[in-house]
Amino acid sequence: MNSFRLVASLLVLLLGATSVASTRSDPNHAVQGRVFDAAGHPVPGLTVYLLPSNIALEGLHSAALNLTLGTRFLGVAKTDAEGRFNMDWLIRLPPDAPPLPPDAGGVPPGTYQLCVTSSISPTRVSRQIFMRVEVGSAGIRGLELRFPSSGPVITGRVVDRSGVPVAGASVAVVPRRLGGASSLELRERAGPSYERTDEQGRYELENLDPGAQIVVVWKEGYEQVAPVEAEPGTQAPDIVLEPREMLRGRVFNVDGRPADDFWVTIDTVTLLFSGGRYALPISSTETLTLRIDVPGNVSKWLSVPVREGEDATAPDVHMSRGRTVSVKLEDARSGAPVTDATFTLDTPSGRTTQVRHGSSDKSPPGIHAIDGLSDDDVVLKVTSKGYAPLSIKVPRGSTEVVGRLERGVVLEGAITDGKGQPLEGALLMVRQRRRPEQLIRSDGRGHFMLAGLEPGAARLRVGFGGSNSLQPLQIFATEELELPPTGTVRVDIRFTPRAPSAPPP
Predict the structure, then answer these.
(1) Domain match, 106 and 29 both
(2) Number of folded domains in the chain?
């Protein structure tokens, strides 16, 4: 969604919400505070959100953070010229909120989260701070928050092959360690500093981590020619875009309106779009398989043939409501609830895809609500750390199932460079005789974990790059493993770049 549409959505919520907490303000039940910068100066123009305490916010990608803020907030306020904010009424009440005194508005007592951000636009979420607050019967007064400064920035310019500036291109940074990821994977990982180029093709990125970064650029109808590295406090070399064929499509809600926010998955990459339209670069001449997800709807699958040198248009997708299935997971031996799990479904292409799910604070532990399932017989595949994979059949019309997980083998470890520093984005591939190869990338700490492996022989390969990548796949380590019947096996791998071969005499 663009910033205009998000602001419009907020206004709709403000003006059209049916569960408004108060029609009048009451300073005795308000959350009041002031925001200063690192030098102690007040910071005006910031947006302050109040949210339930059980929503995870820190570490979210910028687009996901904006979607969460825009749809789950309870109250919102702005800092004035003196950095002050006053939240004395709510858009909606939190679940199980205690009643306020008669005819009083404000914020009911309880535990909340505050998020202060410098922007509500998905094209620029530059700085945020998060904190938990306890609101008493008299509200909160005198809350003081310190807002981080932007720090050194990266500036630069985006041009086409003729040197003409490209306006409206999206620009972000990713860690240097992810240089081997595909262009779509880089786009998925981009953030938290996210800008658009101006009419002269120029951009400025702030709130950056120290050290060299890869500047990633994308725009509909274009593709970045080569990755560009830059450090905060410097000007990056010009980034060149070249024309690229695109696959375009439209997504509609059940009521026939364009879908506000939806996800498109191609291969293993999932991207967020809005406004009912999406566009993806065409990177092959084969048939492309897409999955379309709208919260609360049945996932839709598309197979779209593409031709070399031509744009392609996918058939319109009209979403349909699905059923919600309650899945109870428990340990097969102890009967203890299993609270952390990932659910997948078989896809028309024979692959598996992750299913969005959640659990309610009011539900007993181990109960998982799976939304948007079709009314046909489906098979849910469940993986959970320390357990073997499990398939659960959900019959037509059923809304409750039980799954009992058996303990399995866990493979985990860390990838580091020659100096012992963690390597993010390394690709790990595990192959076993009776199972398809499993893939995972190391995280920001260089850590990886694959759960539910079968006992016996397994081959682990580690490399960088891969299909549809800015760099080809290069394997730098291979390990032959013998996995025990149960338990955790740790494998730590150090990557030492090979010295260049000496020229022949």
Answers:
(1) yes
(2) 5
